[in-house]
């Protein structure tokens, strides 16, 4: 939501700035609706950059993973605007078109910075009072559960990896290997994150998006269930049901 509001603000800022600059510097408007390049060299240069902008995403998606592609889509327009500013300043300096392009660049750069800040990794370190129980009722006790992960928001998915410490055992948690469609559903459609956890007794984990609640299960046969925060089996069962069902589409 923050990014959408900020994006709308930047559009209004850019439109307002363009009108003020056009009037102040008496910049003539182009005869055509679309942008007019200053010469053929300028046109060829921008076409080359646009072709690269279309081709390079395949490298990001198929080789590097799509999670960081927002840096690319915002970075390339900044490069094009820098090139455009230079060409306008060099070949049509008297028109002062480069002044308007500079402000276009400022808008794009501010959006790029906001995305960078939005996607900066965040260290999550929380300890919970959890309740663990088994299906056959042989285990039913209060335990301490600690979550230590690196969490990173992206435009199309939220990523996480780290460790869950529970009752003397360590479990590795990661979003790596999860289907991209599931990652997007976690971000946009579901109320919790869902990950596999790996250790001596692998299992599954659900975490609320505010990190205040979690539930999971480990083991193959005599499965161990747990939920936090919870102080009784009833609380743990209800929370487990709530979080696990939040993943239903």
From TrEMBL:
UniProt-listed InterPro entries? DUF4181
Superkingdom of the organism of origin: Bacteria
Q: Any stretches that span the bilayer, and where are they?
A: 6-22, 48-65, 71-89, 101-120
**Pfam family, any one:** DUF4181
Q: Which UniProt keywords apply?
A: Membrane, Transmembrane, Transmembrane helix
Protein name, UniProt field: DUF4181 domain-containing protein
Originating species: Evansella tamaricis
């Amino acid at each position: 939501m923050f990014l959408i509001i900020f994006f709308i603000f930047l559009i209004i800022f850019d439109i307002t700035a363009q009108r003020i600059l056009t009037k102040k510097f008496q910049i003539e408007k182009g005869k055509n609706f679309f942008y007019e390049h200053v010469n053929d060299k300028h046109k060829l240069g921008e076409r080359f950059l646009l072709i690269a902008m279309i081709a390079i995403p395949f490298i990001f998606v198929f080789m590097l993973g799509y999670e960081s592609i927002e840096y690319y889509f915002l970075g390339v327009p900044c490069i094009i605007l820098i090139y455009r500013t230079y060409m306008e300043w060099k070949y049509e300096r008297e028109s002062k078109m480069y002044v308007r392009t500079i402000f276009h660049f400022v808008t794009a750069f501010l959006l790029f910075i906001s995305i960078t800040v939005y996607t900066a990794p965040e260290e999550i370190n929380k300890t919970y009072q959890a309740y663990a129980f088994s299906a056959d009722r042989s285990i039913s006790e209060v335990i301490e559960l600690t979550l230590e992960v690196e969490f990173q928001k992206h435009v199309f998915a939220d990523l996480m990896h780290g460790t869950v410490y529970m009752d003397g055992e360590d479990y590795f948690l990661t979003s790596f290997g999860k289907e991209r469609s599931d990652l997007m559903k976690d971000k946009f459609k579901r109320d919790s994150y869902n990950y596999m956890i790996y250790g001596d007794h692998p299992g599954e984990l659900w975490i609320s998006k505010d990190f205040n609640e979690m539930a999971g299960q480990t083991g193959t046969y005599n499965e161990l269930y747990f939920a936090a925060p919870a102080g009784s089996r009833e609380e743990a069962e209800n929370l487990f049901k709530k979080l696990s069902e939040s993943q239903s589409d």
